[in-house]
Amino acid sequence: MGPRIQVFLLVISIQILVVAAATNSIDVAALSALKSIWKNTPPNWIGSDPCGTSWEGISCTNSRVTVIILAGTDLKGSLSSDIISLSELQYLDLSNNKGLTGTLPSSIGNLNKLSILMLVGCSFFGPIPDSIGSLEELFFLSLNSNSFSGPIPPSIGNLSSLSWLDLTDNKLNGTIPISSGTTTGLDMLVNARHFHLGKNQLFGSIPSQLFSSNMNLIHAVLDNNQLTGNIPSTLGHVQTLEIVRLDWNSLDGSVPSNLNNLTIVSELYLSNNNLSGSVPNLTGMNLLNYVMMENTQLQGQIPPNLFSLPQLQTVVLSNNRLNGTLDVGTDYSNQLTLIDLQDNSITNLTQRTGSNIDLILAGNPICERAGATESYCTVQKPNSSNLIPSNNCASMECSSNKVTSPNCKCSHPYTGTLHFISFSFSNVKNLSYNKALVGSLMSAFLSTQLPVDSIFLSNPVIDVDSYVQFRTQIFPTGQDRFNRTGISGVGSLLNRNPLQLRSSFGPFFFIDESYCCFAGTGKSTNTGIIIGAAVGSSVLVLLLIGMGFYAFYQKRRAKRAAERNPFASWVPNKNSDSIPQLKGARWFSFEELKKCTGSFSEASIIGSGGYGKVYRGTLVSGQLVAIKRAQQGSLQGALEFKTEIELLSRIHHKNVVNLVGFCYEHGEQMLVYEYVPNGTLGENLSGKSRIQMDWMRRLSLALDSAQGLAYLHELADPPIIHRDIKSNNILLDDHLNAKVADFGLSKLMGDVKKGYVTTQVKGTLGYMDPEYYMTQQLTEKSDVYSFGVVLLELVTARAPIHRGKHIVREVKEAMEQSNDAYDLDEILDPRLETTPVGLDKFVVLAMRCVMDSAAERPTMGEVVREIENIIEMANANANLPTPSLSYETEGSIHNPYDNQDSVGYSAGFSALNIWHG
Length: 917
Known about the structure:
Layout: H1 3-20, H2 25-37, E1 58-61, E2 64-69, E3 76-78, E4 91-93, E5 99-102, E6 116-118, E7 123-127, E8 140-142, E9 147-150, E10 164-166, E11 171-174, E12 194-196, E13 201-205, E14 219-221, E15 226-230, E16 243-245, E17 250-253, E18 267-269, E19 274-275, E20 290-292, E21 299-300, E22 314-316, E23 321-326, E24 338-340, E25 345-349, E26 358-360, E27 403-404, E28 410-411, E29 414-420, H3 425-428, H4 431-447, E30 452-462, E31 468-476, H5 484-496, H6 499-505, E32 508-512, H7 526-537, H8 539-564, E33 586-587, H9 590-596, E34 605-609, E35 612-618, E36 624-630, H10 638-649, E37 659-663, E38 670-674, H11 681-685, H12 695-714, E39 720-721, E40 730-732, E41 738-740, E42 747-748, H13 749-753, H14 770-775, H15 780-796, E43 801-802, E44 805-806, H16 807-817, H17 839-849, H18 860-878, H19 907-910
Parallel strand pairs: 2-4, 3-5, 4-6, 5-7, 6-8, 7-9, 8-10, 9-11, 10-12, 11-13, 12-14, 13-15, 14-16, 15-17, 16-18, 17-19, 18-20, 20-22, 21-23, 22-24, 23-25, 24-26, 33-37
Antiparallel strand pairs: 1-2, 27-28, 29-31, 29-32, 30-31, 34-35, 35-36, 36-38, 37-38, 39-42, 40-41, 43-44
Helix pairs in contact: 4-6, 12-15, 12-18, 15-17, 17-18
């Protein structure tokens, strides 16, 4: 045997050993043990290398198993103590596997790296082990919809990192644990944001020590238990609260007066208790949307100022002892849609309410007098069949085992029920609100690259526990069914409640129906193992036979790779005839970029996102650059990458970030941009820098970014639709010129006009054109809508979705409420002067940009001209020159290259690379 062959065999042997050792042996043993206990494990759980062969649902870091996501995969069995051998495990989600049963092993407390534990909708029973309090890194704990019994472990109070505690819908009993001299309790969870403890059998009083002023709690959900005693006044000390649910208990006494201090609570549920006294004063709760106090024995007259709360939508005080004259007042909220006062003792009404308000007084003396025919004396049941839009595919028929999606495709949807812990009666009847929910869900799926084509919600009902339920069908994209990875990803995201959904639509959980037909399903049988063993035993023979062909094969392989690689004819020489017209964009070698970033050191990182990381580098010429380095999971095909480079190299405008060059070597894809140092428009509006954002500065930045976008639409060759315009994609250079950035989602306008219809709607929640989402027809007017939202940000300095409301809706409401159509004092950025010159024209322009119909929106060229007119008017009024370029440079400026806000995650999740399918 020749020396070359010996070297080749040695290399192959080493590679085989390396592959065999890709997964830590202890982790292999643990997963193998679980596999032997569980039924219906994924078919590709074969072999002894879960990390190297990418077992479905398993993710690894440095040969250690760190993530297990097998939600909704029909697992059956129990969770044995073998799980504790996975000592590096950080994320465990086995939700919606109803066949998983038994008790939680107490040894689970040994998984000291675990930060997320989700077991929603399984069949676990018995006590929650006290050892769970040893999981010091635990951030997210969701055990709802099982059959856990016994008391809540006091040890949970040790979990100082815990943000989300959800034990809803179990059989837990006992009292709510609080700390004492020898034990811990829930009162020690001062960093927790969510207490979801409803639908259990907890008894005793709500301890006053449970709440304190140093807590960060936003959801206090204790409904549907057996709690007694008074509502503790300490509840009024938790200034961060947004939702309070104490309904369906046996609480008594009066409502504490200091609940009026909870100024950002939007939903207050106290129904079905034994409360006494009068309706509390709630006038300090300016963000209150829903007041639910039915069946509570409250008495006396309703204070008129209750209805003047500016955001109030629903008041339900039925079946109490309220009496006297109902005085709604004349300054009641224009958001008000329902006042339900049936079955009380109200005798008179001072005046009628507006026609948009459903007033219900049935069962009161005012409706018992002879001849009472007023509309408020009858109760009309909502017609839920008309609350959800049809899919408009009536003429389309699918085979008996498939369903028509809203996009008129036949496929097998992932079906289940969304259970909303907080969702008002009035919103159940609000079709536009439900459309917004669908849009937000879609945005969350698309931003995480989950294979979802569309969503259909139907049959909204309010269950016996006052939870709102929507039957939910989620349709796959690209094929007619989901694989296991897709199902697990969808289910895990829903039960993890992404931040933007949680804040806009309240907390919810998802219980699925068993999925019928996983894509690529095959049975893991002994036959497969035997075949694998036979193949393995033949490897050595095949190696010996194939050695003679190795050199020939390598030559052929190199030749084919060159033919497939569209860069093969390119050489790093700008004078080569084979290089397309890149107009200044350089081809950088990997070594050049490695050197200018200090070997891609952590210190050079200035941003990150789903695509990878961005590094700050200094070229040999001294030029500062931002290097966008794609991670392996987000690499494009070579042809797509080449096309993007050719596209970006044609874009040259002072208000568009310039492409300096690119790198395509060693399996790397990197784009090199000019470095833009002064952060994003969004960050500067938020006050995170010390750049002075006065009115003239904002007008100047609006003009800059409008000119950049108009260039893309009207002058670029070929014209481009950006598709992700937002304040965080507008960067400020060292002279405070605004530059449009990030073309990762862009499309050529020519492709669109030729009939291109995107099959995956993409963009950022809050900025996305609703017509584009509903029709999937992309036009340049979709960018105009997004830019209109940016203009409203410039006026208000608020995020597009603020406290559950869209900025467009907020501005419309402010204009409708004011005598002066442009008196926006309530939402105007307080750093601006009271009435900036040109504000009215600026707001009119912004609202034209966000018209529902794309045909009614202006072009970007028209937007540029209108902003120029506003600036000219403002300058003439103030007799000032164009705004100067001076600015303060002290203070921290957040980097402009982060892109985590596109329907992103909270910090607890962003660190985990869980989507590997």
